[in-house]
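JOB MANIFEST
job_type = single_chain_structure
chain_count = 1
residues = 171
[input]
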Amino acid sequence: MIKKEELVKIGQFAKPHGIKGEISLVTDYDLADISCDNPYIVCDMDGIPVPFFIDSYRQKSNTTTLVGFDGIDSEEKAKLFTGKQACIPADMLPLHDEDMPGWNSVTGYTVSDGKIGRIGLVTDIDDKTANILLAVDYKEKEILVPAALAITVDPERKTIEVALPEGFFEI
């Protein structure tokens, strides 16, 4: 059984694309990176998390992927996804392997940058959008660091190394 607390939002469905059941998924994730032999996306249907197995996908733009699911073969069926969140289990995140946690379990990890050094501790995870943000305590102030900037995550040492762009703290 799929538990809601084990899911990570990766994006949101927009509208159907065409008449054969493809759906526009607004996401920053590359579906090819999902670590699973039979990848699926979980969608809340009437309060129940339901897996939909990916039949096909193709990149439409930097933030939009057209997705086809097994059994969704018409525009009418695809319309059921419009506006719904797209989630995957945390253990299917591209970052995940057998020894590495999903983003929801990195609270308390130390974040550092190769140039700056130690930044602070992860105090919270903001996964309300497709861009997962790490809330980091930096000099007694909370800053939000995009998880996409992570280079390495070491669960043994509870550290995350990021590559912050120049001028990050000036924003």
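[summary]
Residues 100 and 155 are 6 Å apart (CA to CA).
The radius of gyration is 17 Å.
exit_status = 0
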